[in-house]
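WARN retry 2 of 3 for item q-0093 after timeout on previous attempt; input resubmitted unchanged.
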Amino acid sequence: MSAEGQHHDLPPQQITVRIPDVASVVSLVPKKTPLALATTKISKVPAGSLLWSEDGAYLAAMSPNAVTIYDGRNQDQVAALTLPTVVAVSFSPQNTYLTTFQRPAPGSGNAEKNLKVWDWRKGTVVMQLFQKSFSRDHWPAVAFTADETSALHLVTNAVNVYDPHNFSQGVAKKLAVKGLAGFAVSPNTAKPLLAAYVPEGKSAPGFVGIWDLNQLSKGDSPAPIARRSFFRANAAQLLWNAKGTALLALTSSDTDATNQSYYGEQKLNYLSADGKNDCIVQLKEGPVHDVQWSPSGEHFITVAGFMPAKSTVFTEACKPFFDLGSGGHNLVRWSPQGRFVAVAGFGNLPGDILFFDKKADGKLKQMGATRADNAVSLEWAPDGRSVLTATTAPRLRVDNGFQIYKYTGEKLLEQKVEVLLEARWQPAPRDTFPDRPQSPRANGSAPAAPAAAKASGYVLPHLRGSAAGASSSGNFSLGHDPNDSRGRIGVNAHHKTLVPGAPAPDTKTASKNAKRRQRAKAKGGDGQASEDGAEPAAQVKSVTEGVSALTTAEPQAQEDSGADAAKRLRNLQKKLRQVQQLKEKQAGGAALEPEQLQKIASEAGLLQEISMLEGQT
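OK item q-0093 returned
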């Protein structure tokens, strides 16, 4: 793109820009000075929405009553479909079909087939169905396998599967599961897999399952290859890796059981496609802001936790591998080649962007940093050498425009636009641009990261300006955790992976267990202790006694000071989260120890004491 590393035999990189009711495609002109723009054939085309095909070969421009398709290489118009009240379009993976959704006319009922699959080159409809409403989260409503041998559509309690070569025969096979709310098809062609999600019911947990698409029929559905159940989840986002060997299920609920987040809570669940491994991904406490698989499917990165959020790299097998540190971040993006990573904080955050280089040994080294003020989006260029950020309406009505930053943080271009609705790169096939390391000239010349504003803790009015007030101000910052450290995630002596932000192992309990085992061995016992550190004889303690002791005990908060009450409240909330985790294990069919059952039975007492303490702090 810039003079650095320009390959003249590679295609030009283009940006799609959309302003109210008009769209343009502009090319980048590389110069020794900062980049310049040149308008292409598609200039001032009426469009209320734009969509590129996955490989950038075609561009669909939607106006209120038509869809116009352009060739992405020479910008010539290649097709036009007249479609009143069209709302959304989607290309199939190999660009053979185009799926469209039209807003149904009032009072038309299901007689109007408003969901259509087109052979758009011929201008003919090959399948049409009725769909009552449109949901961006479930679009495209008709999903194709990567080789386009199957087309899938979600209906009540089932996913219907069609043969694209013979849509007229109707449903070829289906996955029938009561309460089915969403699905996702794996991208691999050798063995296409179907992941489906069922939210929790009145008394039953929700779950995600994985099925072999080739094993489905018109009859009863087979058992899933893999399955994971969970509570406190009424929505899920299903994310396959590029190889179709692993699935991430980002579940969310409208409420937070710990009352720490107004926006509810999110959990990230992992399932291997062979059914041999499923678990909850251990993350820093708080919301899951973003998660993204690498293009190779061998790693994924999470940005999670209350601010400052923690960014962590995991392996394909869901093992935490590298700690990218914490900061005011809520977004992560891999470059198309999987070499570079951008971690950023947009929206209500300042707009800081960190750029990392993934080395051959898997470690990630920071290359540069910058700040994109007021940016709301970030996207890597197809060649993986720069990112495009944009400030768009209606999110922001001022300072609209787009910028291009090099992977070192250097600003290459800034373009102001009075009202900008969209700016994004034209995609390119994966192998179009080579995977190149950073330039030797750029290595080590990255600008320093913007300094985060120093934040002080809240100080009571009567202590402000005093030494006591200064000492109580704390060192917490939304921009950085001073106790945080980056680097490769280690393993402790017991070979348990240390997860950043997760509760530390209880070394005191482990030490006590070791001493108990030594004493038991000296007395001729087997030296075994329970999981929670209790002696075997102590495990027979009545669960009823434990509940009674908790519910009748006088809350300590009445005698504690304000600081002690806050500490007590945090401890109780931690115990409550442990109870919720045990209940999830129990719902998943795991056998629990008596001590663990006693912990579950203590939930009512914990909630009672938490309620009393919250009234005092």
